[in-house]
Write a sequence for this structure.
């Protein structure tokens, strides 16, 4: 599978992701998503689209998020991942 590039937006946050086949790693601004989003509810928002299609360990995702706060960034990332899966 080639890299898929999509964009998600929420409020003033923008997330650009690059998704490819892999083992399930998610990097946000060059950090692990669990380190970037330290609270469990925000982590769940990020992986919700992957859980919906049972693909949590199927794709590697690298993303760049900008603007807004952590909640908006997590929502934008969720949308970008869902678009990539479609």
């Amino acid at each position: 599978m080639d890299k898929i590039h999509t964009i998600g937006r929420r409020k003033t946050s923008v997330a650009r992701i690059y998704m490819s086949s892999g083992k399930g790693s998610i990097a946000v601004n060059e950090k692990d998503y669990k380190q970037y989003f330290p609270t469990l509810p925000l982590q769940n928002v990020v992986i919700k689209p992957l859980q919906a299609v049972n693909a949590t360990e199927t794709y590697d995702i690298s993303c760049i998020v900008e603007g807004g706060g952590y909640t908006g960034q997590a929502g934008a990332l969720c949308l970008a991942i869902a678009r990539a899966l479609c």
Summary: The helical segments are 33-36, 40-52, 70-85. The chain is about 40% helix and 35% strand.
